[in-house]
Specification:
Length: 312
């Protein structure tokens, strides 16, 4: 995949079929749109291309409403590549960019830089200064500037349109199983493994303590997870404040591996959230907590036995 972080690096991107947006999370709706871009590109001999922005435009034009992001640009590019996108222009979004009219944006960037022959977007697409342009505007500019416009229907799941904001809501409510369906993969958090207080290894069960930088976290509670590094382990993870021991206001993410760990503990892990088990709560003793953890482990093991056909 070719990734350009400015118009100068995007020389030679055309002729292309392009879709435009932020694509945070790269959920199933985005994936459907990308596949349409790939399909028309292969039919016509164009290059399947994504035009996206850094930072998210809201951070420039409405910072008080800027969303917490689900994915980094690198993660998005990796996921786009997996569905066949070959080129990504990450356009720096500045106050100057925000002032471009719909016509200026299309002429300078979409046609002038990307040599777009087709532009595919969702039905709620808006662009240009103060979001003055919509899909009708895009179709008119396509006729004027010589590219085809296609409006791609949204993807629905259980009667709701799949969107980045809806995926964030699901994760923050703890419904990671439904978020997994909306993403076509588990929501995951990555980071370094850091030293804890050692209480778990002495009084309950040993855990890997994750230092994270993710902006979106699952609701406090216990989750069935899968943990990855060079290896892959079934696991159970607590997101919370460890009320049995400290009642601290500091949030921790602690993962207990259900599978044997061969060799030294990993220094970096990726924790994939599959299903919520229960709320976090305070127990009367470490022994009572350990008993509950072993029950949680049993539920997790049963889950993996049932799900081994679709959880990879």
């Amino acid at each position: 995949m070719r990734v350009a972080r400015g118009v100068a690096e995007a020389a030679g991107f055309g002729p292309s079929a392009v879709t435009i947006g932020n694509f945070d999370g790269v959920h199933v709706g985005h994936q459907h749109l990308f596949r349409e871009v790939v399909r028309i590109s292969r039919e016509r001999g164009w290059r399947p291309t994504v035009l996206t922005f850094d930072p998210h435009p809201s951070y420039v034009v409405a910072p008080d409403r800027a969303p917490r992001l689900l994915t980094t640009h690198q993660e998005r590019c990796d996921l786009m590549r997996d569905v066949g996108i070959e080129q990504v222009l990450i356009l720096p979004f500045t106050t100057e960019t925000a002032r471009l009219s719909p016509l200026e944006f299309i002429q300078r960037i979409v046609v002038g830089v990307l040599d777009a022959k087709a532009v595919l977007v969702g039905e709620n697409f808006r662009f240009g200064h103060k979001q003055a342009g919509n899909t009708k505007t895009l179709e008119e500019l396509g006729s004027q500037c010589g590219f085809e416009t296609r409006i791609v229907d949204p993807v629905r799941y259980r009667g709701r349109v799949v969107s980045s904001s809806e995926v964030r809501r699901l994760i923050e409510c703890g419904d990671v199983a439904l978020a997994c369906r909306s993403l076509n993969r588990p929501y995951a958090i990555s980071g370094d493994v850091v030293a804890g207080q050692g209480i778990g290894s002495r009084q309950t069960v040993p855990t890997l303590n994750l230092r994270w930088s993710a902006a979106v976290l699952p609701r406090v509670g216990v989750y069935i997870t899968r943990t990855r590094n060079s290896g892959r382990w079934n696991s159970i993870t607590n997101v919370g404040h460890r009320p049995t021991f400290s009642g601290s206001h500091e949030l921790t993410i602690e993962t207990f591996l259900l599978d044997p760990l061969e060799g030294p503990a990993p220094e970096y892990i990726r924790v994939e959230f599959l299903r919520r088990v229960r709320d976090e709560r305070k127990f009367e003793s470490p022994e009572a907590l350990k008993t509950q953890i072993l029950k949680d482990v049993g539920r997790a093991q049963a889950f993996f036995r049932r799900s081994k056909r679709w959880i990879r």
